[in-house]
TrEMBL record:
Name of the protein described by the UniProt record: Tyr recombinase domain-containing protein
Annotated Core-binding (CB) domain residues: 204-294
InterPro entries, per database record: CB, DNA_brk_join_enz, Integrase-like_cat_sf, Integrase_catalytic
Keyword annotations of the record: DNA integration, DNA recombination, DNA-binding
Residue ranges of coiled coil: none
């Protein structure tokens, strides 16, 4: 076998890198060694053998080796703060564990209610005290606890071996028999589901679905993963107050996987109840189980929205931290540069006419004719100005063209870009548009990846305003996301947010026009699609589900660093808290933030803000507030001339307003008192803000009026231009408040009261429309 040249070695390394991106679990096959300069690194010897390179050839491409190391760090194969020997033991443990069958796990040697790892893992005894090795040992033991192999009620006693051998093994065998029974049942139609009776086990149809999926799982370790995922999914249903006899068709819905990730997995990671690596496996198993559910006829469940997997621990924390001002500027510059370059490449190719025909009658390159200009001659005159690639040619001219490029030792994709040609619509080309859309809207990554080409509306059917229609992570379904409600108050939104979104849609649709023709029907309308360049999926048109594996490349490409000078932890999820951070810095009220985020309840917004890291902004706001208090104390402003009797409402008079009752019409809250329309010493008359006032008193008799008010607000939005005026903000706020008030809850009105009030509202007229038209 002939020795490979440098270009071939580079191509092999790039292909290997892409395979690791597409299938990160392959990274565990790379041994970890120690480098004095970098610490833990992938084994050069292993990479040499894999790509067929000498040590000298491999060392010519340190940037590609570093990218492989970056992926190993990203997927937690390498932890930068840990030593190589501990990481290698940990890697061997993971490879060993993945190779075990379920039966082999039952046969493992146990002592002290723990696996005797020293019998299976080289050097384990010397490395067992490393924290990461001990943590992984605990994780494997926990899995055996879930399977019933280890005793959850383990105590130090002489009888523990007997208990394990009898009771535990007996229970474990019973569980296996139950799974086997359900797995043998057919499940092709909804009628095949086990009928719910008083004697059936809780969530039996859910378990039957998981059991049906087990038929297609080859390894016993995989079967174990699905059983553990089932247990967590049932825990999620219990936490969500889903009755145990609920039919499967009522449990399954499009956003189930997303809600499971958001409401169960992430909180348990935050509470350290689930390790991120285990969480990724759990989500993957549920994803595959839901795909199996879509194959069941007459179940009414045909599709669901996928979610990103779970990233490393550091990134889970970073999901709630906004980008710093410095990071924002760097990201802005990088995205603007990439999008601008892509738009230039989309311009029609300009024929140059350079070069000459360089081939002989056998289509071999004539000596000294293998120049780049002559390659361009072939490109323009014999290849139709269409890019061709190594290993995927169909003509003698394409083969000759690639031989010339290879002999000149230039990078093919970069050469196409230098000529003004888009080589392929891949992740690198589409990623900046995904990031930019996340940046200017604050929409989460799952919703962005699920966008379709017709989800941007120039005129919403109710408000006649531009909006993005995306699917929120909740059972509420479709949610219109208004783009420009508050752009006058927000500096970074003043550059016509809706136009920016429209530009992204138009550009991406044009960019993907040709590959969309080859896209599978189920993704043909997805906005963000790519053509794969990976070894296993080359040329396949795919939808972007995640950009996790690309983030490190993007940060490295543009040298984006945080305030400490370290590479920025780039993540789509961080654009949402950054978006909120911008709102807070502009003193936008929490009610307006609620509207911008599309939250139905104010409590959802406050809980979200509680999780965010706004320490810098909080300190600035606190300093400003303290300074204001201090200044006010020095100035000793005159106290209000309002009589104290009115101020305190000692007589407990309930004042009647056009909306309802007011606890004290002379003492409104600060957001009313600070407005220009309020006159100190006089009764409040800003009735359009009663809904948001803490003094408002609503009882059941007010419900018909509230429903009528909501009805007329919606009509007003549809039939007038008031939404283009400052009053549009008030209407949006009031509609949000009404939605919250008119939703049944323990602290609000009952469903019966609301149903009766809505019926009576048909006979109620308000003065909203008349006063607005005046």
């Amino acid at each position: 076998m002939s020795r490979k040249n440098s270009s071939q070695i580079k191509a092999e390394l790039e292909s290997l890198l892409e395979s690791y991106r597409n299938e990160p679990k392959l990274l565990l096959n790379i041994p970890i060694t120690h480098s004095k300069k970098f610490g833990a690194v992938p084994s050069n010897k292993y990479l040499q053998e894999t790509v067929g390179a000498t040590q000298a050839q491999l060392l010519r491409y340190p940037e590609l080796i570093e990218l492989i190391r970056g992926l190993m760090i990203e997927y937690e194969v390498i932890l930068p703060e840990e030593i190589a020997s501990a990481l290698e033991i940990r890697r061997n443990m993971k490879v060993w564990w993945a190779s075990l069958s379920l039966e082999e796990k039952f046969e493992l040697k146990i002592f002290g209610n723990s696996i005797q790892f020293k019998n299976y893992i080289p050097n384990y005894r010397g490395g067992k005290n490393y924290k990461i090795v001990a943590a992984l040992s605990s994780e494997f033991n926990d899995e055996l606890l879930e399977l019933g192999i280890l005793d959850k009620n383990y105590v130090l006693s002489k009888d523990r071996a007997a208990l394990r051998d009898s009771n535990i093994q007996e229970r474990a065998q019973k569980k296996r028999d139950e799974w086997a029974y359900l797995s043998d049942l057919p499940l092709e139609d909804a009628g095949d589901l086990t009928q719910m009776t008083n004697n059936t086990e809780p969530y039996v149809q859910v378990r039957q679905l998981f059991a049906a999926k087990l038929k297609s799982v080859d390894s016993d370790s995989g079967i174990s993963n699905y059983k553990i995922a089932y247990k967590h999914f049932v825990d999620f249903l219990i936490e969500s107050s889903v009755p145990s006899d609920t039919p499967l068709e009522d449990i399954l819905e499009e956003f189930l996987l997303s809600r499971f990730r958001k409401n169960y997995i992430l909180p348990n990671i935050d509470n350290k109840n689930i390790a991120p690596s285990s969480a990724a496996t759990i989500i993957s198993c549920l994803r595959q189980t839901l795909k199996r559910a879509t194959q069941i006829k007459n179940l009414g469940f045909t599709t669901f929205y996928d979610v990103e997997g779970i990233e490393d621990v550091g990134r889970v924390t970073d999901m709630y931290r906004p980008y710093s001002l410095g990071e924002r500027k760097q990201i802005n510059d990088a995205l603007a540069s990439d999008i601008s370059q892509t738009k230039q490449l989309m311009e029609p190719y300009v024929y140059t006419g350079v070069g000459e025909y360089p081939l002989n009658s056998d289509y071999h390159v004539i000596p000294k004719k293998g120049t780049l200009d002559n390659a361009r001659f072939l490109f323009e005159n014999h290849l139709g100005c269409e890019p061709v690639f190594y290993g995927h040619t169909s003509s003698v001219f394409a083969d000759a063209f690639l031989r010339i490029i290879l002999s000149n030792d230039v990078e093919l994709h970069q050469l196409y870009k230098d000529w003004g040609v888009i080589p392929v619509v891949d992740r690198a080309l589409i990623a900046p548009f995904v990031l930019r859309l996340a940046q200017i809207t604050g929409i989460n990554s799952d919703s962005i990846c699920a966008l379709e080409i017709d989800d941007y509306l120039m005129h919403h059917k109710i408000t006649s305003r531009p909006c993005l229609t995306y699917w929120k992570e909740r059972s509420g379904g479709e949610k219109p996301y208004h783009l420009d409600i508050f752009k006058a108050e927000l500096q970074w939104l003043t550059v016509s947010q809706s136009k920016a979104v429209k530009d992204i849609f138009d550009t991406v649709i044009a960019l993907t026009k040709e590959i969309r023709k080859d896209a599978p029907a189920e993704i043909s309308k997805r906005l963000f699609i790519i053509k794969s360049t990976g070894r296993a999926t080359y040329g396949k048109v795919m939808a972007i589900e995640s950009l996790t594996s690309y983030f490190n490349n993007y940060v490295s490409k543009h040298s984006i660093v945080n305030d400490d000078g370290d590479p920025t932890q780039l993540n789509i999820a961080r654009f949402r808290p950054t978006f909120v951070s911008e709102l807070i810095e502009k003193d936008v009220s929490i009610r307006e933030i609620q509207l911008m985020l599309g939250h139905k309840y104010l409590s959802t917004t406050t809980n979200y803000l509680d999780r965010l890291d706004f320490s810098r902004v909080a300190r600035q706001k606190l300093y400003a507030a303290l300074k204001k208090i201090h200044t006010g104390a020095l100035a000793q402003k005159n106290k209000s001339k309002r009589p104290k009797r009115y101020l305190d409402n000692e007589d407990q008079v309930v004042f009647t307003t056009p909306l309802g009752g007011c606890a004290n019409i002379f003492d409104p809250p600060d957001f009313i008192r600070n407005s220009s329309a309020f006159v100190e010493g006089q009764a409040c008359s800003q009735y359009n803000k009663c809904l948001g006032c803490e003094n408002v008193m609503l009882i059941a008799s007010h419900i018909p009026e509230l429903f009528a008010m909501r009805r007329d607000y919606l009509l007003l939005m549809q039939n007038s231009r008031i939404m283009t005026t400052p009053y549009g903000v008030v209407i949006q706020e009031n509609l949000s408040l009404l939605e919250e008030i008119l939703t049944p809850g323990e602290d609000g009105f009952s469903k019966k009261e609301l149903d009766e009030g809505e019926r009576l509202s048909l006979f109620v007229e308000t003065n909203i429309i008349d006063s607005a038209g005046a």
